[in-house]
Amino acid sequence: MLGAGEAHLNDKDFDSSLPNPGFALRRALPKPASPPPAASPWQPVIGLLLEIWGDARARGNFDQADLIRERLAAARIEVRDGDEGTKWHEA
Question: By residue range, what is the domain housing residue 52?
Fold first, then answer.
Protein backbone atom coordinates (compact mmCIF):
# COMPACT_ATOMS: atom_id res chain seq x y z
CA MET A 1 0.00 0.00 0.00
CA LEU A 2 1.30 3.44 -0.89
CA GLY A 3 1.06 6.47 1.32
CA ALA A 4 0.53 10.03 0.20
CA GLY A 5 3.28 11.19 -2.12
CA GLU A 6 4.73 7.68 -2.63
CA ALA A 7 5.04 5.88 -5.93
CA HIS A 8 6.48 2.63 -7.20
CA LEU A 9 9.07 3.02 -9.93
CA ASN A 10 9.95 0.53 -12.61
CA ASP A 11 12.22 0.44 -15.66
CA LYS A 12 9.73 2.46 -17.73
CA ASP A 13 10.17 5.40 -15.36
CA PHE A 14 13.79 5.93 -16.43
CA ASP A 15 15.13 7.39 -19.66
CA SER A 16 17.66 4.76 -20.70
CA SER A 17 19.43 7.20 -23.03
CA LEU A 18 20.84 9.08 -20.04
CA PRO A 19 24.20 7.95 -18.66
CA ASN A 20 22.69 7.65 -15.17
CA PRO A 21 18.93 7.25 -15.63
CA GLY A 22 18.10 7.73 -11.94
CA PHE A 23 19.87 11.10 -11.84
CA ALA A 24 17.20 12.95 -13.85
CA LEU A 25 14.42 11.36 -11.84
CA ARG A 26 16.07 12.15 -8.51
CA ARG A 27 16.49 15.78 -9.56
CA ALA A 28 12.81 16.01 -10.54
CA LEU A 29 11.45 14.57 -7.29
CA PRO A 30 11.03 16.88 -4.29
CA LYS A 31 13.44 16.35 -1.43
CA PRO A 32 11.90 14.39 1.43
CA ALA A 33 11.10 16.35 4.54
CA SER A 34 13.58 16.03 7.36
CA PRO A 35 12.31 13.76 10.08
CA PRO A 36 11.26 15.57 13.24
CA PRO A 37 13.86 15.53 15.99
CA ALA A 38 13.55 12.50 18.20
CA ALA A 39 11.90 13.21 21.50
CA SER A 40 14.23 12.84 24.43
CA PRO A 41 13.45 9.92 26.72
CA TRP A 42 14.03 12.40 29.54
CA GLN A 43 11.17 14.68 28.40
CA PRO A 44 8.73 13.65 31.18
CA VAL A 45 11.34 13.90 33.94
CA ILE A 46 12.71 17.24 32.78
CA GLY A 47 9.17 18.54 32.30
CA LEU A 48 8.37 17.65 35.90
CA LEU A 49 11.58 19.26 37.19
CA LEU A 50 10.79 22.43 35.25
CA GLU A 51 7.30 22.51 36.76
CA ILE A 52 8.83 22.27 40.25
CA TRP A 53 11.40 24.90 39.24
CA GLY A 54 8.63 27.25 38.03
CA ASP A 55 6.59 26.72 41.20
CA ALA A 56 9.66 27.44 43.35
CA ARG A 57 10.25 30.69 41.44
CA ALA A 58 6.58 31.68 41.75
CA ARG A 59 6.75 31.16 45.54
CA GLY A 60 9.96 33.16 45.73
CA ASN A 61 12.03 30.12 46.71
CA PHE A 62 14.95 31.09 44.50
CA ASP A 63 17.42 28.85 46.35
CA GLN A 64 15.44 25.76 45.33
CA ALA A 65 14.88 27.09 41.80
CA ASP A 66 18.61 27.81 41.40
CA LEU A 67 19.51 24.35 42.71
CA ILE A 68 17.22 22.67 40.16
CA ARG A 69 18.63 24.76 37.32
CA GLU A 70 22.22 24.08 38.45
CA ARG A 71 21.60 20.32 38.62
CA LEU A 72 20.02 20.36 35.16
CA ALA A 73 23.03 22.29 33.85
CA ALA A 74 25.35 19.71 35.43
CA ALA A 75 23.41 17.05 33.51
CA ARG A 76 23.97 19.08 30.31
CA ILE A 77 20.38 20.33 30.13
CA GLU A 78 20.20 24.00 29.20
CA VAL A 79 17.08 25.88 30.32
CA ARG A 80 16.07 29.10 28.57
CA ASP A 81 13.32 31.53 29.50
CA GLY A 82 11.70 33.56 26.77
CA ASP A 83 8.54 35.24 25.60
CA GLU A 84 7.15 31.84 24.57
CA GLY A 85 7.84 30.26 27.95
CA THR A 86 10.57 28.02 29.27
CA LYS A 87 12.38 25.78 26.80
CA TRP A 88 15.18 23.30 27.31
CA HIS A 89 17.60 21.33 25.20
CA GLU A 90 20.42 18.89 25.73
CA ALA A 91 23.73 20.72 25.48
Answer: 43-90
Nearest 5°: phi and psi at 78?
-95, 130
* Total structural domains within the chain: 1
pLDDT digits (tens, 9 = 90+) for 38-77: 778 888 899 999 999 999 999 999 999 999 999 999 999 9
Residue 31 lies in a domain: no
Number of CB atoms found within 10 A of residue 72's CB? 18
How many helices, marked H, and strands, marked E, lie in the chain?
3, 2
Is 60 domain-assigned? yes
d(CA 17, CA 23): 12
Angle between helices 62-74 and 43-58 (to 10 degrees): 150
Tell me the residue length of the chain.
Answer: 91
